[in-house]
């Protein structure tokens, strides 16, 4: 009984809860454990008040009164984190409604990595509150898409991207799209002079130290470092991934891979320090690489049954299937087991890079590259967090990469639970600092001040899945013909699709028939290949690529005249088609047979 009196005194002396200053809040989250991210650890029993699209107060629940009538989320036993950032997505041609996948998974900011005018429209609709979705930032079109291959073009590209209203420059270049060091440095300098970030790939024809010297703001994909930093001893990885070195060399390379990670460790540590000194940030996109490794492995069959496929458009899903999957049906198709070993080694190197870069203090941010095949918009971000922890980061560091560090690198407010920050929040049923997988346990999401309960989010997802229904059957019929190698049947099924035809579906069909043509060409069935390519030119006469492929088939059969005619058609439709121009020149130089 003796303790009752002191306790009573303590309660009596506590300050009375104060009402929030200013106009009434529009949302309260009460008695919640806050993981603020602007400092370490958890704040127990907090009340968070939101007004409009901003957080206006975060304080111990006993100190902050919630005005009667304020819409309230009960935070007892729950954890509140800032909304998550995916700094590397492709909005592509997916329907606007697919943005719900990000919200439903607690991703409240995305950076789109190859922008088109339509994406700026999406950004505006979301910002205006007329389309539910994450806050969108977008780079301009990539330097490869715009063929930036001279200092003058680099300057013009930056000016155009800036004038169009994009948020950053997307650097992309390898093989035919490579750029000189002078062009690359001009690109970075010009962008920085007008206050724009340069993000994306490394120029793969230049050593990685060039990236550090030029001052690119962030590198997306740890694999870029594997490809361009020679001291990692990873030239053999590149040789396997980008060409087929033949059985003897393959055997030697696979032997060389054993122990590569251990051998590369000192070089990675040194590079981490150099990267830190250069002010580089890294979005390793481990989930993208891991998913590609799974795709070429025996796991692929089970991936075809993944539950989340329901929320992927049938057209995109078809392009992930066995006949069209770019990792399984492309250049790797005859050596998938060897490729899997190479990718596994590269992934291990990349995880080592992540660990060392973190230890050196390089800012790491989460990005996924969704929707790469089976890299689902939204949920893949949670896998990326898990991979950060698997690489050796603490749960707190991983969470920082998806929140406060990402906001800082993208130069936008947010990423914290604090007064004045955007009201982009995720309410979790369990503590993500205890187990990073708990970021998946989403009870509610607040986006720009609007609260979405789990039921609201699920309803949004169901609506998305229903949106795909009308196309489902049409795509299934087309895929059936693709699987039967029936090019004519594919075109017939495509033409039977009820209008309006999804432009993505047209692309899928064109690619599928084109791939069939090349398969026939590879098997030396020249007449059948020409018939397939011809079908494609009839169905898609505006596509420069269909004419280019047909020309190639004629060239293979020795019909120089027909090859030239069709290359010319291709060049008329796409004056930038360097291949067609080169081939016409070559064919004209040939002696007549
Ligand atoms: Zn990407």
Give a written overview of the molecule.
Strands 1, 2, 3, 4, 5, 13, 14 and 15 form an 8-stranded mixed beta sheet that branches. A 4-stranded parallel beta sheet has the order 9-10-11-12. A hairpin with a 2-residue loop joins strand 14 (442-447) and strand 15. It has helices at residues 4-13, 100-104, 117-128, 151-164, 181-193, 208-214, 223-228, 235-242, 246-257, 260-277, 286-296, 300-303, 314-320, 336-360, 379-391, 395-401, 404-410, 454-483, 487-495, 503-522, 526-539, 544-557, 560-573, 578-589, and strands at 27-34, 43-51, 54-60, 72-74, 79-82, 84-89, 107-112, 135-138, 168-171, 197-200, 218-220, 281-283, 425-428, 442-447, 450-453. It is globular. Helix 14 crosses helix 15 (379-391). It has 593 residues and is α/β, with parallel strands linked by helices. The termini are far apart. It contains 24 helices and 15 strands. The structure holds zinc ion. The site of zinc ion has 4 residues, from loops.
């Amino acid at each position: 009984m003796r303790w009752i009196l002191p306790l009573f005194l303590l309660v009596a002396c506590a300050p009375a809860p104060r009402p929030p200053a200013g106009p009434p809040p529009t949302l309260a989250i009460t008695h919640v454990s806050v993981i603020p991210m602007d400092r370490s650890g958890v704040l127990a029993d907090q009340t968070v008040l939101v007004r409009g699209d901003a957080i206006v107060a975060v304080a111990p629940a006993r100190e902050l009164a919630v005005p009667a009538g304020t819409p309230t989320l009960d935070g007892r036993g729950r954890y509140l984190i800032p909304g998550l950032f995916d700094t590397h997505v492709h909005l592509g041609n997916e329907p606007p409604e697919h943005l719900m996948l990000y919200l439903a998974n607690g991703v409240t900011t995305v950076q789109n990595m190859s922008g088109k005018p339509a994406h700026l429209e999406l950004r505006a609709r979301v910002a205006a509150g007329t389309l539910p979705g994450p806050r969108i930032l977008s780079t301009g079109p990539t330097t490869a898409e715009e063929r930036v291959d001279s200092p003058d073009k680099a300057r013009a590209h930056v000016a155009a991207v800036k004038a169009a209203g994009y948020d950053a420059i997307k650097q992309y270049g390898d093989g035919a799209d490579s750029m000189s060091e002078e062009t690359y440095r001009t690109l970075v300098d010009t962008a920085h002079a007008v206050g724009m970030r340069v993000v994306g790939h490394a120029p793969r024809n230049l050593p990685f130290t060039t990236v550090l010297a030029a001052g690119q703001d962030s590198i997306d994909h740890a694999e870029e470092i594997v490809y361009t930093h020679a001291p990692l001893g990873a030239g053999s990885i590149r040789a396997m991934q980008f060409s087929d070195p033949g059985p003897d060399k393959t055997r030697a390379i696979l032997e060389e891979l054993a122990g590569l990670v251990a051998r590369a460790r000192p070089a990675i540590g040194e590079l981490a320090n150099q990267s830190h000194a250069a002010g580089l940030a890294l979005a390793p996109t481990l989930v993208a690489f891991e998913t590609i490794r799974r795709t070429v492995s025996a796991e692929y069959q089970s991936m075809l049954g993944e539950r989340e496929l329901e929320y992927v458009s049938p057209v995109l899903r078809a392009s992930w299937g066995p006949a069209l999957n770019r990792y399984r049906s492309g250049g790797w198709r005859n050596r998938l087991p060897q490729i899997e070993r190479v990718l596994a080694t590269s992934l291990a190197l990349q995880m080592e890079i992540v660990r060392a870069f973190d230890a050196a203090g390089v800012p790491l941010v989460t990005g996924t590259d969704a929707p790469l095949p089976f890299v689902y918009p939204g949920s893949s971000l949670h896998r990326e967090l898990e991979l950060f922890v698997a690489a050796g980061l603490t749960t707190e560091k991983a969470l920082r990469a998806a929140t406060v560090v990402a906001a800082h690198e993208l130069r936008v407010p947010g990423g914290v639970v604090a007064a004045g920050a955007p009201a982009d929040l995720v309410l979790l049923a369990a503590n993500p600092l205890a187990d990073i997988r708990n970021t998946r346990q989403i009870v509610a999401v607040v986006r720009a001040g609007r609260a979405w309960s789990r039921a609201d989010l699920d309803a949004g997802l169901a609506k998305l899945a229903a949106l795909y229904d009308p196309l489902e059957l049409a795509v299934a019929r087309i895929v059936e013909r693709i699987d039967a190698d029936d090019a004519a049947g594919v075109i017939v099924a495509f033409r039977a699709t009820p209008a309006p035809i999804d432009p993505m579906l047209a692309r899928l069909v064109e690619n599928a028939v084109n791939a069939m043509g090349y398969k026939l060409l590879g098997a030396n069935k020249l007449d059948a290949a020409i018939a397939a390519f011809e079908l494609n030119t009839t169905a898609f006469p505006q596509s420069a690529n269909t004419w280019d492929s047909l020309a190639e088939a004629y060239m293979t059969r020795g019909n120089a005249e027909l090859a030239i005619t069709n290359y010319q058609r291709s060049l008329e439709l796409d004056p930038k088609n360097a291949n067609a121009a080169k081939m016409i020149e070559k064919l004209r130089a040939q002696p007549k047979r």
